[in-house]
């Protein structure tokens, strides 16, 4: 799966990009018709510790799913967002199977 990683107003580490790629590749086993995905990283400008935001956007034929999570670390946010995205993709797969 083609994964585009974007960091808003900062630069990201290669380890984080590798982590994201590995985690997104796992999603492909739940729904194999994913065209591409975008992952956006943002830092919220607050004094709270949970200021790291990860937003995953996945494009499938005929639809687009967006999940946004905010946590203490980018890795944790990606994990939570990927888990939510996994549930969405499984639902989509069941819906497509039911209609055929």
Q: How would you describe the overall organization of this protein?
A:
By secondary structure, the chain is α+β, with helices and mostly antiparallel strands. It has a single domain, classed as 2-Layer Sandwich (Double Stranded RNA Binding Domain). It is built from 2 helices and 4 strands, in the order βαβββα. Strands 1-2-3-4 form a 4-stranded mixed sheet, with helices on one face. α1 (14-27) packs parallel to α2 (74-99). The model has no long low-confidence stretch (mean pLDDT 93).
Keywords:
Ribosome-associated translation inhibitor RaiA, Double Stranded RNA Binding Domain, RHF/RaiA, 4 strands, alpha+beta, 2 helices, four-stranded mixed beta sheet, 100 residues, 40% helix
- Class by helix and strand content? alpha+beta
The count of DSSP E runs of length 2 or more, i.e. the number of strands, is 4
Order of strands, main sheet, comes to: 1-2-3-4
Task: Characterize the overall form.
Answer: elongated
Q: Give the percentage of residues in beta strands.
A: 25-35%
CATH-derived topology = Double Stranded RNA Binding Domain
């Amino acid at each position: 799966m083609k994964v585009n990683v974007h960091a808003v107003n900062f630069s990201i580490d290669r380890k984080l990009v590798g982590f994201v790629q590995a985690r997104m590749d796992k999603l492909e086993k739940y729904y194999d018709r994913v065209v591409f995905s975008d992952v956006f990283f943002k830092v919220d400008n607050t004094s709270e510790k949970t200021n790291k935001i990860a937003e995953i956007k996945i494009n499938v034929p005929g639809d687009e799913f967006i999940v946004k999570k905010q946590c203490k670390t980018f890795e944790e946010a990606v994990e939570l967002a990927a888990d939510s995205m996994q549930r969405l993709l499984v639902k989509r797969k069941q819906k497509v199977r039911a209609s055929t």
